[in-house]
Write a structure and sequence with these properties.
Radius of gyration: 28 Å
EC number: 2.7.1.-
CATH architecture of one domain: 2-Layer Sandwich
CATH topology of one domain: Nucleotidyltransferase, domain 5
CATH superfamily of one domain: ATPase, nucleotide binding domain
Protein name: Phosphotransferase
Family: Belongs to the hexokinase family.
Number of strands: 15
Pfam families: Hexokinase_1, Hexokinase_2
GO molecular function: ATP binding; D-glucose binding; fructokinase activity; glucokinase activity
Number of helices: 16
Distance between the termini: 109 Å
């Protein structure tokens, strides 16, 4: 063999050795990457672990806070607000009632025709109106004048045969989804604005009084019969058709719960005991916090960077506003520490809330063999291309860990309510059933979240779960529920017309 041939062979052999070394190094790095990524996922799973023993501790801590909040105002993690709703729908309500649902940059007007036990909710008509931006920072009179004018226009479309008889006012349920200190069933003072509103002259004033002045100004003869929180409306919506309903829970962008409490069990209640002996309590449970909650470094970072650090901790690990961002934060750590998506960190992954919970849900429910939905979401939202099946599987695993924790903690919250009120009453020879009404996009549309919540509640309740406790979906408590509360608190009780 000539010198040239020998030299070429040596060069080729050396190149082959280098190539082999690079392959080994790549495999080692790749193996190390997956090992570290898996370790991060495993650590998250351990920190989010919610065995039944821990859930019972969470429920016990909630129970303690419930008692404290019912005993005194202020200083409690749970506000346990007295709603003045002591007369929930019986199912007998008949007639035409209106609702106004103000909770953001839009508001809804609703007309609800009730037909009692025989016909139930006969007909619902509604209209949505956008609030001009300048009215969100102007004066309260301008805002309420605008709302009153739109409400009057909606009322003008009322069918003639449903007009109230002479001398009878139309009645309205007013859902006002901002922090309010309720002072009666139909009055409450605004504590502060949220959601982009900043109308200074309304703070500390009665919001029903403001709306009523505007209604009177344009000659609309309508009375606000109930000032409503959407969670309380959820209880009312469900109670109209099922008298076993004892609580309502919102699991959507945010989370909250309300339940029917025995009036004697509210030490801070200073008024006369209601004839019904009951009072609906708005828990504001999103603000619950306890050392028993399974918090992670990602939750702590999210809280520290939020608009309200140290507040709404339960909401931040349970509700739809935050679940997707917790997953994003874990993926960001994987990208930064183990090159999970390649040598560079995808810029979009650094944007808070870029990964929404509906997107997380879509990835979690992906049943395709190649997890195509996951791949498309990573590409469309985070601009991460060409992900491997292995990568996609880890993403699904993270979604499952975060959603399962939220669902199981929600179940613990419901369990604490059932535990607090007891419900040992025997009716027709059977122990009275307790039904919890749920609403919100997280419960309605995130199937794996919902099934995990329901199965966890059965675990907590034991063998008698199906016989003594029920879960049902109660749609639109903020709208229909408000109209129903106007009906059950009508000044014409007993004389409603169908």
């Amino acid at each position: 063999m000539g010198k040239v041939a020998v030299g070429t062979a040596v060069v080729c052999a050396a190149a082959a050795c280098v190539a082999a070394a690079l392959v080994v190094r790549h495999r080692t790095r790749s193996s190390g990457k997956w090992g570290r990524a898996t370790a991060i996922a495993k650590e998250l799973e351990e920190q989010c672990w919610t065995p039944i023993s821990k859930l019972r501790q969470v429920a016990d801590a909630l129970d303690v806070e419930m008692h404290a909040g019912l005993a005194s105002e202020g200083g409690c993690k749970l506000k346990m607000l007295i709603t003045y709703v002591d007369n929930l729908p019986s199912g007998d309500e008949k007639g035409l009632f209106y609702a106004l649902d103000l909770g953001g940059t839009n508001f809804r007007t609703l007309r609800v025709h009730l037909g009692g036990k025989e016909k139930g909710v006969v007909k619902i008509e509604s209209e949505e109106v956008s609030i001009p931006p300048h009215l969100m920072t102007g004066s309260s009179q301008e805002l309420f004048d605008f709302i009153a004018s739109k409400l009057a226009k909606f009322v003008s479309s009322e069918p003639e045969e449903l007009h109230p008889p002479p001398g009878r006012q139309r009645e309205l349920g007013f859902t006002f989804s901002f922090p309010v200190k309720q002072t009666s069933i139909a009055s409450g003072t605004l504590i502060k604005w949220t959601k982009g509103f900043n109308i200074e002259d309304a703070v500390g004033e009665d919001v029903v009084g403001g709306l009523t002045k505007s209604l009177e100004k344009i000659g609309l003869d309508m009375r606000v019969a109930a000032l409503v929180n959407d969670t309380v409306g959820t209880v009312a919506r469900a109670r109209f058709s099922n008298q076993d309903v004892i609580a309502g829970v919102i699991l959507g962008t945010g989370t909250n719960a309300a339940y029917v409490e025995c009036a004697h069990a509210i030490p801070k209640w200073q008024g006369l005991l209601p004839k019904s002996g009951e009072m609906v309590i708005n828990m504001e449970w999103g603000n619950f916090c306890s050392s028993h909650l399974p918090l992670t470094e990602y939750d702590q970072a999210l809280d520290a960077e939020s608009l309200n650090p140290g507040e709404q901790i339960f909401e931040k690990i349970v509700s739809g506003m935050y679940l997707g961002d917790i997953v994003r934060r874990v993926l960001l750590k994987m990208a930064e520490e183990v090159d999970f998506f390649g040598d560079t960190v995808p810029p979009k992954l650094r944007i808070p809330f870029v990964l929404r919970t509906p997107d997380m849900s879509a990835m979690h429910h992906d049943t395709s063999s190649d997890l195509k939905v996951v791949g498309n979401k990573l590409k469309d939202i985070l601009e991460i291309n060409n992900t491997s099946l292995k990568t996609r599987k880890i993403v699904v695993e993270l979604c499952d860990i975060v959603a399962t924790r939220g669902a199981r903690l929600s179940a613990a919250g419901i369990f604490s309510i059932l535990k607090k009120i007891g419900r040992d009453t025997v009716k027709d020879g059977k122990k009275q059933k307790s039904v919890v009404a749920l609403d919100g996009g997280l419960f309605e549309h995130y199937a794996k979240f919902r099934s995990s919540l329901e199965s966890t509640l059965k675990e907590l309740l034991g063998d008698e779960a199906d016989e003594t406790v029920g879960i049902e979906h109660s749609n639109d408590g903020s709208g229909i529920g408000a109209a129903l509360l106007a009906a059950s608190n009508s000044q014409y009780l007993g004389v409603q017309e169908s």
